[in-house]
Amino acid sequence: MDEARLGFAWAWTLLDGLARAGLRRVVASPGSRSTPLTLAALRHPDLAVQMIVDERSAGFFALGLAKADHEPTALIATSGSAIANWAPAVVEADAARVPLLLLSADRPPELHACGANQTMEQTALFGVHVRAFHALPPPDTRTDWLADFAARVFHAARFPLPGPVHLNIPLREPLTPAGPTSAPETRPVPLVSKGRTAPDAALISSVDARLTGKGVIVCGPETLGEDARAAILDLSARLNAPVFADVLSGLRFSAPDDAAVLAHPDAVARQKPAFDWALRFGGTPVCRATAEFLRARKGAAQIVVSDCARFGDPDRIATHLVQADVALFCAGLRGRPAPADWARQLARLDDAAADAAETACAEDAPFEGALLRRLLAGLPENTPVFLANSLTIRSAEWFAGRRARALKIFGNRGLSGIDGNLSTALGLSAALGPTVAVLGDLAFLHDLNALALMRAKKLTVLLLDNRGGGIFDHLAQAALPEFEAAWIAAQVYDPAALAKAFGLRYSAAETNAEAVAAVLENLAEGRAIVHVAIDRAHSLARARKFFASSQLETCS
Amino acid sequence: MDEARLGFAWAWTLLDGLARAGLRRVVASPGSRSTPLTLAALRHPDLAVQMIVDERSAGFFALGLAKADHEPTALIATSGSAIANWAPAVVEADAARVPLLLLSADRPPELHACGANQTMEQTALFGVHVRAFHALPPPDTRTDWLADFAARVFHAARFPLPGPVHLNIPLREPLTPAGPTSAPETRPVPLVSKGRTAPDAALISSVDARLTGKGVIVCGPETLGEDARAAILDLSARLNAPVFADVLSGLRFSAPDDAAVLAHPDAVARQKPAFDWALRFGGTPVCRATAEFLRARKGAAQIVVSDCARFGDPDRIATHLVQADVALFCAGLRGRPAPADWARQLARLDDAAADAAETACAEDAPFEGALLRRLLAGLPENTPVFLANSLTIRSAEWFAGRRARALKIFGNRGLSGIDGNLSTALGLSAALGPTVAVLGDLAFLHDLNALALMRAKKLTVLLLDNRGGGIFDHLAQAALPEFEAAWIAAQVYDPAALAKAFGLRYSAAETNAEAVAAVLENLAEGRAIVHVAIDRAHSLARARKFFASSQLETCS
After folding, report:
1. Three-state secondary structure string covering A384-410
2. In whole angstroms, how far apart are CA A90 and each of A325, A481, B88?
3. When you count CB atoms within 10 A of the terminal residue's CB, does the N or C end of chain B come out lower?
């Protein structure tokens, strides 16, 4: 077998093994050294391949695909700095627990440490940020182990802690097989169980003993599965314990109206109602007020539950760190219901906050809070929505309230970067169909290359253009004389011209209502940017008024 | 001292130590955790700070600044995925030996491993791709060692192997000092010697004994210093040894007309003239023909000289690997001159190639080779020029010839990526004044975010728009049925609209002459894009005709 056919057979066997284990989606960037991998993916009947020039964008696009169904997406790129461009998506996938398979092409050993072009040490390039790293040998006729290996690697990206796995794959020239290729003999792969972590019985008893008096359930920004959501709502009802749910948890945009899920948990948390115990799921809350609310009850029973060993508790006030599947854990608890007026008391605070939010959002001059509130109220059932980091996600937390008709809400809260947000949303739209992304102008600017993909995707972007990092207005940096130059960094650009450059539809909205109407109008077809210019000072004043109206301090 | 003042004093002492060691330029990205570092840099009288939103772009911009004068540039960014965006520039800086100081803000130890926001393990993030990594402790009142530490770190980025050094800097809240800050007491730092590696006398004798018969000098894509260029030209004259110099070596665009520097080394190399010895400097040549030429004389004396231990010799045919300063090495050699007709014989081949290149470039329909040939002939003396990777740099190698009036030619040949090319060119223009960047449409698309910086910089971009990776036309992938979709990846965008989006000047050129005239016209003021649409098939045919006209095979 010539080297090109050997390389193709090697790549095919690997990708076929991954496909048999369950892989369906591949995101590849053009390159020469990676030809056998890309070609095998393109020619595999069970794999759909998306080509993306910018590997950073490709990384976040793959992240979005994998977020859509929690199944691994594979990335392929050529050797050298190309794969270093994956780094931002890799660290986010690590932190956010998103399964990715990083298939990096490499030069073979004889081309290392001799000044060959596009050659660098790729071993362990992503350090501790991957679940596993494997250095494959150069292509060989002995492939009888590759399919089984692929199945295990696929599994390692999913369980027990989903995340990236990196395979480094040396390939030799020639890289392009002449003429048609036939699929090499394939092998079945073992079925690999994902499993669930059942809670420890002794710990459950210890927790149960503490669930007495006034309780709260706090759900952070991790998307909870359907069974986890149902179990949490059931527990909440049984124990009369209101739920403080982050926008990204999914609960605020799916729970039935009669569930004790607060619409404005951030505002209620600012009042610091004194609970006796807190059950905490799904990571550290986005808004600082909830963290302060928990900190204020240091010493009370605070049980942090996670199905992996990543327990969100930056104030180190948890009394229990429980590694367990959320649904199994909730089902195993007995506890005692709180006094009847506890939930009512919090519901009253919540209603007051809802009134304040409604008032703050009534005026039709553009305001992030009003835009998020109206948008998330108006979208059709099950619309996927991506909320960018920084002020966008916080505005949703503060102002968006809740609704029973489900929305699929996503964000990148692993590391909460403003990088790759647009690419992630495009990946979601590729997996889930018509999608809305809400981005501030800096997050949008950080990921411009993604616009090249947007024409072919059903994504509608609501661009909140407050001319530079509006979040910093809420922080102490705003008092510095260097503030405008160094933090706001007004990057003046014309979104209409950008839309034209990439053949996208564009509309400028003057009011909150116009903006939301434009998003709804574009939703089905996508490839649209709805642009709202927002006055930062006006916006800050409205947010402050909302915080003040519920006797709340400014938060961040 | 409160925590904010402690953090500021800590950051200031560190940056002041770096400034005293010689640091002048800082590139910072907006963020919260990095506030003490950014503020100290902004308030330091000897530091110039450029703010850039996208940390990937910031990394390559810093790379460009550091390439301009071979002195370290510092990068500042906030914790989390932000610093992972530096990775592409870091691996390029490692491979291309460019000194960078990576100052990453981090959360303090108590916020690690507890689910705090924007927190990841940043220790050794860049693995083997940095010269040194240091984990600083959180800010402390004991700072008497910091300035000396800074001076050593600055040195480590410069000598013996220039490259990135990474300092991870935990900082505690509050991050913003209230009111004006005064500079803490500063300390002088030791002067640190850079040094030169003198050649080993025994090895020089061994080399000298081999320098008999017909010799060639091959200079790869590393920019040679002025003394190295002078020493090489002197040696070439003494030994009657023609110089095969890559465009990026600087020799082809500085050597006097009477120097034996070939104008078309790639074309001459295709003829495989049989040399007895080769002295090789400055890394692996960009074009494959030169590599094949060297390989054809395996067994002949081939001496690879580098002032660091990175010897470019992918075919492993070197007889000597000499670590020495190039100028000191050349001055130490005696050797024996080649027969008089040796240089004449190569000069005749070179003249024939020059005629063929002139013919191939005569027609005025847009063609990469003609554009590079005319542009590099027409630019004013000492103009800095950045050549993007892939087809751009190769077209320059093939067609640009040589000239005695100096040009400062740059590229990113460490890993030869198409990432960050525009940002690197912007960094060069910030350091060196009016600059030209020549980019293909894919390299341009890969680095769109850099356009946000371009309005304030004197950079003129010549955009060679052959609608997707034209280099692949020269490779075997072109025969694949998947070629168009997966490799060419035509990413249709409208450069005129992009220019409008960022307030840049734009002109479309119909001919090679028009394009070059437009570049010259825009040069002084910059912030301009000159766009040439190129027909890929026409272009490939002209390149092939050139290769055929000198009885050459297609190369890549």
Report:
1. EEEECCCHHHHHHHHHCCCCCCCCEEE
2. 25, 36, 13
3. N
Residue owning tokens 């027969």: B339
Q: Assign residue A410 a region: left if phi > 0, alpha if psi is -120 to 50, beta otherwise? A: beta
> Which residue among A117, A414, A497 places its CB closest to the CB of B497?
A497
Identical fold for domains A201-345 and A361-549, yes or no, is yes
Unique residue bearing structure tokens 């503030």 = A483
Interstrand relation of B505-509 and A48-51 (parallel, antiparallel or unpaired)? unpaired
For residue A73 the two structure tokens come to 């997406």
Lowest mean pLDDT among B72-86, B163-177, B480-494: B480-494
Q: Are A219 and A244 in contact (CB under 8 A)?
A: yes
Neighbours of A333 (CB within 10 A): 17
pLDDT for residue B217 is more than 90: yes
Shortest CA distance to A117 belongs to which of A109, A107, A126, A129?
A: A107
Six-digit token string for B11: 């950051």
* ipTM reported for the complex surpasses 0.90: yes
- H or E element, residue A539: helix A536-549
State the number of CA atoms in the 13 A half-sphere of B533 facing the CB. 7
Q: Write down the CATH superfamily of domain A361-549.
A: Thiamin diphosphate (ThDP)-binding fold, Pyr/PP domains (3.40.50.970)
Centre a 10 Å sphere on the Cβ of residue A182 and count the other Cβ atoms it contains: 10
- Residue A442: closest CA among chain B residues belongs to which residue? B53
The pLDDT value recorded for residue B551 is 54
Please report the pLDDT score of residue A184 as a whole number.
Answer: 82
3-state secondary structure at position B305:
strand
Split at pLDDT 50, 70, 90, the class of B555 is very low
Question: Scanning every residue of chain B, which has its alpha carbon at the shortest distance from the alpha carbon of A469?
Answer: B30
CATH number listed for the domain at residues A3-170: 3.40.50.970
Q: Apex CA A133: angle with CA A127 and CA A137, to 5°?
A: 130
Which tokens in the block code for residue B19? 């400034």
Domain spans in chain B, listed from the N-terminal domain onward: 3-170, 201-345, 361-549
- Asked if the Cβ–Cβ distance from B498 to A501 is below 8 Å, we say yes
| Distance from C-alpha of A545 to C-alpha of A543, rounded to nearest angstrom | 5
Give CA separation, B182 vs A362, B8, B28, B179, in Å.
46, 10, 21, 10
The span from the CA of B95 to the CA of B418, in Å, is 15
Can you name the CATH fold of A201-345? Rossmann fold (3.40.50)
Contacts of A491 in chain B (CB under 8 A): 53, 452
Q: Which of B136, B157, B179 shows the shortest CA–CA distance to B25?
A: B157
Of the candidates B91, B314, B448, the beta carbon closest to that of A115 is on B314
Least confident of A39-43, A166-170, B143-147, B547-551: B547-551
Task: Kindly state the greatest CA–CA separation across chain A.
Answer: 78
- The 10 Å Cβ neighbour count of residue B209 is 11
Rounded CA separation B555/B78 (Å):
45
Residues A86 and A37: beta-carbon distance below 8 Å: no
Overall residue count recorded for chain A in this entry: 556
Among candidates A175, A445, A476 on the partner chain, residue whose Cβ is nearest the Cβ of B449: A445
Interchain proximity A469–B176, CB inside 8 Å: no
| Closest CB to B174 among A84, A91, A476 | A476
